[in-house]
Structure formats: structure tokens, C-alpha cells
Amino acid sequence: GFKTFRIHLKMAALIEKEYLPDGPEAKAIASVIPYYPFHGVDRFYDISGMTHSPEAFQLCIDVFVRRYSTLDVDAIAGLDARGFILGPPIALALKKPFVMIRKSGKLPNAVTGSQYHKEYVGDNKTGGDELCISRTAQSVCHRVLVIDDLVATGGTLIAACDLLTAIGATIVECACVVELKALNGYSRLKEKHPDVKVWSLISEEILTLKGT
Known about the structure:
The chain is an alpha/beta fold. It has 7 helices and 10 strands.
């Protein structure tokens, strides 16, 4: 009833304040994420540094689980490929189905989205990519939380949101560990999907570990 709804709102407000973007937990995780020149990108942030540290990895998962524990979601959708590292432990902790959004041609019985481009050259002949999702995912994808490691130019995230809305899903929020705010990916997403919010834990401002 209304009382329960108010309690959830209060809990959500407390959680919002508990883990702030670029806050103490974010800085602890950022301290083990190095960057390297890669694929023509000067600073390619490698979350392997986080996954190599059980403490940092667990902290990251705990932050996302805590944030989304009060959100009304039916499924967690992870983006190929690093969303597959983050999504399953979050989905298991929240006791929600996990749905893979894969590169085109990687799933049978799939719905394939339109071509998109990102900050480096993709896999198809024109340097782009397409995403696909299993048709069976339609039965669980009603209110979806989208998970990926990083938002840069927003190409992959926009393509994922296009695909999910095409199969009738409502996107509750998109979540990422790192958002490169200077590349305006969130702004591009808002142009196409104005009701979709992106929540990120870490910005490039606190990612200062140069890889060796």
C-alpha cells in the first residue's frame, strides 16, 4: 500500500546518499583500474584491475546491489562483453533473471538490432557492430536494468536501449562502473531515449592509475 511505497522511497533516498559517484567507495575501486593506450584511444580503462582484486570487485558489486535493491526491476541485462562480468553477480544477489545482449551472430533464435558505431572500429565490414538478444528474453524483460562497465560515446548503450524497447521492455535505468563524461555519451542517449537515466559510480576525474 501507500505506507510501503513511502518506506521504499525513504530507503531509496538513503541509498542514493550512501554511495555517491566519485565518493569514497568509488575512489577505492578507481585506485586499481589502470588505463592504457589501446585501439587508438589514449586512455582505455581496464576493469581487469578491479576483477583482479577480490576486495575491489566485491565492493563494486555490493554498491550496485545496494543501489538497486529497492528498484522495481524484473531483469538485469548485461552488454557484451564486460557487462557479463558485472551483471550475473548483481542479478543473483537481487534474485532476478540475467539477460545477455550479445554481438550479432552470437546467439541462436535472436532478435538483431540496427548497426551502431563506437569510439573504436567494430567487427563488421563497415567498422560498426550490431547487438542481438534471445527471443526467449521477451518473457522476462518487462522492467530492465541495463549493466555495462563503461559509457564513452554511448553507441553501445543506445543500441542496447533501442533493442530492448523494440522487444517491448521498459528500461528502468542504465548503470555503469565508469562514465567518460567528456565524450557526452549520456547526452546522446538522452536525445534518443529521454526518459532513460544513466547512473555511474566513477568518472574519469578520479581514474589516475597509468598502466605499466
